[in-house]
Each structure stands twice: as structure tokens, then as C-alpha cells.
């Protein structure tokens, strides 16, 4: 079903167009245009206001939205600077505006709020009125910082995403226990301008299981993270040259991502992370590595060291992560590989795009269940024991060496 209503006024032409679940209100000019709400079918759940020429969508304009509407969307409205959200609005999305101010009425019913591409420079003070808010997204705007105290009274806020802003700091000036501490499960601050992060700030968020700090400019992690429920920590795409995890207590941490930093060594005390199953350090500056440096990570299943500058890797040792299943050391500078002693039941090794000219396939441990060694001076690969018995390794010509640096730059650094 398609319903179309058009009117002309002094400022231009306003249109209401409805389909099965959506109604689109185009070119909203004055509060008088809200008479069109009476024509919205009862089965419609979403009202999208597009290309409004108003600088302020005030309380009266949204208060008249029919109660059958479950979500209000305001989009592609670059005249908009200010919006007032009445108590009855439950879900709201605002995208592609020049929004600078948001007023949320006290005792708000708002449970979902997403704002993207706007001019907000801080989390609105009135967010405290949205005590039922479960999801808050402010992305691709101009937030300068985050004070956790501004969310203190959002006792149901489970998901907070402030990615792609201009955030330079995170603080908490609250002097009391905040309800949000017992609610937040996911915090995303990726793609901002952070350079230093005090990890202790997140200790109070007792339900948090995901913390996403990737693609900032972080050089320093201050303080110690002591957290019982955190399962995933992303710090990839920063400027960390070293990481000290000593004193951290994160017994639930399953995934630690440190790709695309400037690390020259494995983080200090990473062996204390006995429940972590995924560690990625792709695209760093590691030149030497011994598996003993992560041997204490007894739950580690996947280790990614690809796209470094590794010249030596020591794997043949009894001090080995007991559950390791996959090791990726593609795109490095290895010239030799020793897999003669691998004390785990089944290990998959990726070591393509290196410069390996010395490898004893016959002497490789039977515990190496899969080997991918393409684009080296020696090419050798098997996926099963039968393939391993049948196929032989082959030497290649010098073209591999000539193409190595070009492949490395293209794949690892774009």
C-alpha cells in the first residue's frame, strides 16, 4: 500500500508518503504541518522526518506523533540545530543533521537513541532524564570527551557507542555510586583521538564484557584493569610501542587484539592471561619471537603474528601453550623454520609469504596437522596426513624474494 499526501505552504511543499511499515514526512516547515499526523495509518510503526527546514524541532512537533509509532527518524535535515524530545518517544534515530543541542523531557520513555553525523560536542546533559535508555549511539559527530558522570543515572544503559568522534579524554568525576556501573555491558570508543587511557576507569563497570578502543592514537595505557566479566578487548590500530599487563586481573578475557600498533615485543605478563583463547598482534614491529613468551597462556587457541618483521621464530620447545591450534606467521622475513618438536596434539601453521629456504619437512613433528607454506624459497603444504606423505616440498626460483617486499607492503599496510 502506498499513501501520498501533498500540501503547499508559504515556504514550500510538504509531503507525507506511507507504505506498509513506514511513513515519510518530507520538507516539514512549521508546527502547523503536523496536521498530517492524522493521516498516518494505524499499522505504521516508523515515522521518518526528512529534509526539514526547521532549525528547532520543538516539543510540540514530536508530542503529537501518534502513539502507534514505535520509532521516530530524523534524517538529511542540515538546517536542524536543536531538537526537543517529549516524554512519550520510545525510540529515536537522528542522522545527517547539524544538531548541536538535544533536550530530553524528564521521565522520558526513550529506550533507544542513535545520533550520527551531527555537531554535538558533548553527551547532552539531559540524557540523565532517559532512565529507561538501553542503547546510546552517538557516532560521526564532534564529541570532545567523555565524562562517565554524565551517564550516572542511566541505570538501564547496556550499550554505549561513541565511535568516530573527536574524543581526546575519558574521565569520571562522579563522587557517588552510579546506576550505570551495574548496567553497561559494551563500551565502544573506537576511531577517536585518544592518546592515553586510564584503564582503571573501567573497573567500576562490573557487567562490561566488551571494550573497544581500536583506531585511536593511544600511546599509553595507564593503571591496571581489574575486571571479572570483560571477554573482549580491542586495542588494534593505535600507536602502542609497549604494553605492560602486569597487575591486570581479567579472568574472563577471551580475546585480546593488538594489531596495527608499534609493538616490538609481546606484552609483559601476558602469561597471566590463562583464559584468553585469541591473541592477535598482526602488523606490529616484532623481529624475534619465542613461543615460550606465551607458554603460560594455557587456553590460547589462535595466535596471529602475521605482517611483522620476524626474522627468527623459536617453536621447538616443551614450554608451549597447551591448547594452541593455529599459528599465523604469514608475511614476515623468516628464512628458516624448525617444526621438529611441537608438544600439542594438533597445530595448524600458516607461514606463507616469507623467505624460507631452510626447512626439514621429513623432520617436522607429526603434531603439525596442517602447514601452509606458499610463496617462499621452499613451497610446502599439507592439510591431512595422507597429503603430507604423498606430496614433497619444492624449491622456487629467486622471483619470490624479488616480489616479497611488494606483497608485504600491499597486504599488510594497504
From TrEMBL:
A GO cellular-component term linked to this record: extracellular space
SMART domains: LRR_TYP (SM00369)
Cited InterPro entries: Leu-rich_rpt (IPR001611), Leu-rich_rpt_typical-subtyp (IPR003591), LRR_dom_sf (IPR032675), SLRP (IPR050333)
Cited SUPFAM superfamilies: L domain-like
Domain of life assignment: Eukaryota
Name of the protein in its database record: Leucine rich immune protein (Coil-less)
Upper lineage: Eukaryota, Metazoa, Ecdysozoa, Arthropoda, Hexapoda
Amino acid at each position: 500500500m502506498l499513501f501520498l499526501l501533498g500540501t503547499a505552504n508559504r515556504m514550500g511543499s510538504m509531503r507525507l508518503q506511507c507504505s506498509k511499515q513506514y511513513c515519510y514526512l518530507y520538507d516539514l516547515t512549521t508546527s502547523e504541518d503536523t496536521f498530517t499526523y492524522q493521516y498516518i495509518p494505524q499499522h505504521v510503526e516508523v515515522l521518518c522526518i526528512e529534509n526539514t527546514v526547521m532549525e528547532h524541532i520543538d516539543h510540540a512537533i514530536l508530542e503529537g506523533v501518534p502513539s502507534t509509532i514505535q520509532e521516530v527518524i530524523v534524517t538529511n535535515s542540515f538546517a536542524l540545530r536543536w531538537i526537543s524530545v517529549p516524554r512519550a518517544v520510545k525510540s529515536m534515530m537522528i542522522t545527517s543533521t547539524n544538531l548541536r543541542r538535544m533536550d530530553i523531557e524528564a521521565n522520558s520513555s526513550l529506550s533507544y537513541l542513535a545520533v550520527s553525523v551531527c555537531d554535538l560536542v558533548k553527551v547532552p546533559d539531559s540524557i540523565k532524564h532517559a532512565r529507561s535508555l538501553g542503547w546510546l549511539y552517538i557516532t560521526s559527530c564532534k564529541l570532545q570527551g567523555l565524562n562517565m558522570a554524565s551517564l550516572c543515572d542511566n541505570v538501564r544503559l547496556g550499550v554505549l557507542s561513541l565511535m568516530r568522534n573527536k574524543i581526546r579524554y575519558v574521565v569520571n568525576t562522579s563522587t557517588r555510586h552510579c546506576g550505570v556501573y551495574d548496567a553497561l555491558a559494551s563500551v565502544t570508543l573506537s576511531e577517536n583521538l585518544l592518546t592515553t587511557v586510564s584503564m582503571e576507569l573501567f573497573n567500576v563497570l562490573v557487567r562490561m564484557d566488551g571494550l573497544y578502543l581500536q583506531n585511536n592514537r593511544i600511546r599509553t595505557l595507564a593503571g591496571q584493569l581489574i575486571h571479572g566479566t570483560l571477554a573482549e578487548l580491542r586495542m588494534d590500530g593505535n600507536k602502542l610501542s609497549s604494553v605492560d599487563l602486569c597487575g591486570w586481573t581479567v579472568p574472563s578475557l577471551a580475546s585480546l587484539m593488538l594489531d596495527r600498533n608499534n609493538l616490538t615485543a609481546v606484552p609483559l605478563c601476558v602469561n597471566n592471561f590463562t583464559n584468553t583463547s585469541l591473541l592477535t598482534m598482526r602488523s606490529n614491529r616484532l623481529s624475534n619471537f619465542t613461543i615460550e613468551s606465551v607458554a603460560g597462556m594455557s587456553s590460547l587457541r589462535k595466535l596471529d603474528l602475521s605482517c611483522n618483521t620476524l626474522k627468527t621464530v623459536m617453536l621447538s620447545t616443551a614450554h608451549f601453550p597447551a591448547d594452541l591450534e593455529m599459528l599465523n606467521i604469514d608475511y614476515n622475513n623468516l628464512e628458516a623454520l624448525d617444526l621438529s618438536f611441537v608438544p600439542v596434539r594438533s597445530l595448524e601453521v600458516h607461514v606463507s609469504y616469507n623467505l624460507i629456504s631452510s626447512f626439514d619437512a621429513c623432520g617436522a613433528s607429526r603434531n603439525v596437522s596442517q602447514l601452509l607454506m606458499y610463496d617462499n624459497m621452499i613451497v610446502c603444504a599439507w592439510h591431512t596426513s595422507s597429503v603430507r606423505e604423498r606430496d614433497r616440498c619444492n624449491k622456487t626460483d629467486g622471483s619470490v624474494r624479488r616480489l616479497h617486499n611488494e606483497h608485504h607492503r600491499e597486504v599488510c599496510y594497504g
